[in-house]
Each structure stands twice: as structure tokens, then as C-alpha cells.
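A.,

Following up on our hallway conversation. C-alpha cells first:
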């Protein structure tokens, strides 16, 4: 699978990303430099390939809520597209929302949802199984330390429930367990119950066990909308990314073992694209999702997991993730710290340090491409999008 992303600025040669093997791709650049647009380009071409060869699962983590516009053809750039030999095109989009889409996506306004459906967006809703989170994951979710009195009580409750009920316990069971815990003081119990009741009020935790991965469809671009989830308090966004990456990893590990033994499996290879990725794997600080993401990128190649991360602040992404990326698309960067962190990824085959290439970047839509597989570096003029880009500001 060759993903066409643009042309070499120097000799006009077509530039492809080889996508048959698993890849880890970093897209960076300052705000408005074209990262999300480029990420959409890569997704389009992965999807173009889906009917022709093996099925793949394409999932986008969308913190800004901009990728659903891929359901519409990019008519506004029709002329440019024609010059490149393309036509405007729409893609199948499934927009996945935690909890009820009307409440959690459409601000309670049904007309918003109706209009999006008219445009062709398919909606899906998912809930989080409390048992998919480990006892320490639950403590992390509430920012409780393991030596914290509330943390100790919560850890004990989850651990006991897991032992007794396996996968089938829910928030009401956790609340009950905390209420019945004789070892804990009233004030601690109250404080913890407040947190758990808040979690219950979000309506995003399941009341019967749902297989998370069942919500995705290989013939759609699966977009997990995070715009409606508060990025601050209690790590909701990270909670979802942690469960997703953990389960994808486990599913593909099993699938890989089966493939090697020539046992049929319908678990497809995965391309996971994460925009604003510094939210999930920040440098110098731990999050619920970070260790799972690091494992996904470090050990995911063999089981067929590919990752694309985009960030305006590469210096804010964990260095273990950065150093695992085998392809970089760096749009214009001006901050010294960010240039420095990208420059640290310079390799012998480049001729020059990476920062020399970054300095040569001109307009939006140009990016330095570093491809470790091909040992190639150059400046690419990124191709126009076939589908609508939703990143514009109002
Ligand atoms: N390759 C490109 N060709 C034409 N326009 C582009 C290109 N890349 C980005 N743009 C335009 O630049 C603006 C910013 O792009 P975007 O990808 O949203 O920025 P970022 O994600 O880096 O903040 C958008 O309005 C988009 O339409
Ligand atoms: Mg963006």
C-alpha cells in the first residue's frame, strides 16, 4: 500500500509512504501549519486501499471535532485537485461519541444530529466498562495516589469486585463496595462517593458489559469525538485512549498469533491516528494513556498496529514516542524548543541536521519529510485533500 502524500519540492517526484508494514508517523508543525490537513491526506489514502486489499481498521482520535467533514467532497479545491489528477470525493464516516450523542455531542439539540446524518455521517455511541480499567487505572482516573486514603479504599473496592465478579461489575457496584467498606473513615468515604457519583452522572459508563472494539467498522473511517469531553478534570479523554490502545493491542496480539498458525481471524490490522497527541503522551508527566501508547508504538509493529500522531508542540510529546517514529512530516516550526526536539531526531543519512531543512519551509502545505525506511529526507509539497478539511477557524 503506497500512500501518496505529495511531490518533492526540488524535483517534482511523487512522494509515497510505504504502508504495507506497520508505521509510526509523527506530524508536527506550529498552529495552522497544516498538520490536521496532512493527517487527513494519509487517512484518505489508507482508506482508498481498503477495498483493494486487506481490510484495515482506521480510527481517529479527534480532540477538536474536525474530521467528520471527510464525509463531504472537497469541492472548494476542485481546480487544484484536477491539476493533481484527482476529483473531490467523500468517505464513509462513523462518528463515535461517549454516551448519548444528542446530549454529549449535539448540546441537546437534535437538529444538529439530524443535519449531520443528512450529510451522511453515521453516529455510534459507546460506553466505558468500569471493569476495563485496572484498580490503579481507577485511582489515576480520579488523580488519587496509591497511598492516599481514598486511593487505598478505591483500589481495594475494584480489586475485590474484579475477583468476585470478573468483568461484570458497574459503577453502582463500586459505590456499594465503598459504602460497605468498614475500614474507611466517614469523611474519606464521602469524598470518594462524591467522585464516583460524579462519574455516574456523566452517563458514559456502561451498565452491562459491552465489547468496546465492536463499535468500529472497517468500511468506515471511525472517528472518536473528544470535543465534548472536558480535557481537564479527571482524565476522561485519556481514559478512552488508554482502554482503546490496550484493547487494540491485545486483540492484534491474539490475531497475529492466529495468523501465524494460519487460523482464520477477522481482526484487521489497525491504523490509529491521534491529533493533538501531546494531550495523551506528554513529556515529563504520566497519564492514563501514556504507557499503553508507548507499548502500542514500541511493540505494535509485529502485530500490525500503526500509529500516526500529530502535535503542534513536539517538545511536549514523550521522547519514547518521538524516538519510535519511523516517518516524520514536519511543517513549519518556529519555537526553539520544538525545533530542538525534532532536530534531536536527525540521522546520519540526512546530510544536514534536520533544523536546516525546517528553516527552508515556506508556505502552508510544505513539510520536511524524513523517512527512516527509505533513508530519505526532503521537502514535500503536500497534495490537496479529496475530502473536506474541517480545521478552519470562524
Ligand atoms: N496542503 C495544503 N494545501 C492547501 N491548504 C492547506 C494545506 N494544509 C493546510 N491547509 C490550510 O491551512 C489551514 C490550517 O491547516 P490545519 O491542518 O488545520 O492546521 P494545523 O492542524 O496545523 O493547526 C486550513 O485552513 C487548511 O485548509
Ligand atoms: Mg490541527
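Then the amino acids I'd put at each of the 394 positions:
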Amino acid at each position: 500500500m503506497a500512500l501518496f502524500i505529495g511531490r518533492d519540492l526540488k524535483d517534482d517526484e511523487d512522494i509515497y509512504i510505504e504502508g504495507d508494514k506497520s508505521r509510526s508517523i509523527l506530524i508536527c508543525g506550529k498552529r495552522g501549519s497544516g498538520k490536521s490537513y496532512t493527517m487527513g491526506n494519509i487517512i484518505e489514502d489508507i482508506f482508498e486501499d481498503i477495498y483493494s486489499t486487506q481490510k484495515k481498521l482506521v480510527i481517529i482520535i479527534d480532540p477538536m471535532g474536525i474530521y467528520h467533514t471527510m464525509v463531504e467532497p472537497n469541492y472548494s479545491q476542485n481546480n487544484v485537485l484536477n491539476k493533481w489528477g484527482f476529483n473531490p470525493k467523500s468517505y464513509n464516516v462513523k462518528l463515535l461519541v461517549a454516551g448519548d450523542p444528542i446530549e454529549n455531542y449535539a448540546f441537546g439539540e437534535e437538529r444538529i444530529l439530524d443535519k449531520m446524518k443528512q450529510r451522511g455521517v453515521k453516529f455510534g455511541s459507546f460506553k466505558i466498562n468500569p471493569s476495563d480499567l485496572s484498580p490503579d487505572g481507577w485511582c489515576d482516573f480520579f488523580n488519587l495516589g496509591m497511598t492516599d486514603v481514598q486511593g487505598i479504599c478505591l483500589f481495594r473496592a475494584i480489586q475485590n469486585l474484579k475477583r468476585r465478579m470478573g468483568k461484570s461489575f458497574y459503577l453502582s457496584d463500586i459505590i456499594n463496595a465503598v459504602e460497605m467498606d468498614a475500614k474507611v473513615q466517614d469523611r474519606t468515604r464521602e469524598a470518594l462517593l462524591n467522585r464516583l457519583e460524579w462519574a455516574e452522572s456523566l452517563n458514559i459508563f456502561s451498565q452491562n458489559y459491552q465489547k468496546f472494539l465492536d463499535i468500529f467498522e472497517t468500511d468506515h473511517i471511525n472517528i472518536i469525538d473528544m470535543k465534548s469531553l472536558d480535557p481537564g478534570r479527571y482524565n476522561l479523554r485519556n481514559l478512552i485512549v488508554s482502554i482503546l490502545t490496550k484493547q487494540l493491542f491485545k486483540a492484534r496480539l491474539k490475531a497475529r498469533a492466529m495468523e501465524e498458525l494460519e487460523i482464520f481471524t477477522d481482526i484487521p490490522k489497525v491504523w490509529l491516528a491521534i491529533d493533538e497527541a501531546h494531550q495523551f503522551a506528554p513529556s515529563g508527566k504520566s497519564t492514563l494513556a501514556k504507557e499503553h501508547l508507548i507499548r502500542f508504538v514500541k511493540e505494535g509493529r509485529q502485530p500490525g498496529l500503526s500509529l500516526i500522531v500529530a502535535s503542534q508542540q513536539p517538545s511536549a510529546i514523550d521522547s519514547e514516542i518521538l524516538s519510535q517514529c519511523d516517518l516524520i512530516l514536519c511543517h513549519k516550526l518556529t519555537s526553539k524548543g520544538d525545533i530542538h526536539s525534532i532536530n534531536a531526531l536527525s540521522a546520519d543519512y540526512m546530510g544536514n541536521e534536520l533544523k536546516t531543512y525546517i528553516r527552508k519551509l515556506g508556505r502552508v502545505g510544505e513539510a520536511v519529510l524524513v523517512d527512516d525506511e527509505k533513508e530519505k529526507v526532503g521537502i514535500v509539497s503536500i497534495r490537496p485533500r479529496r475530502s473536506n478539511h474541517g480545521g478552519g477557524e470562524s
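The longest strand covers residues 2-8. Curious whether your intuition agrees with the design.

B.
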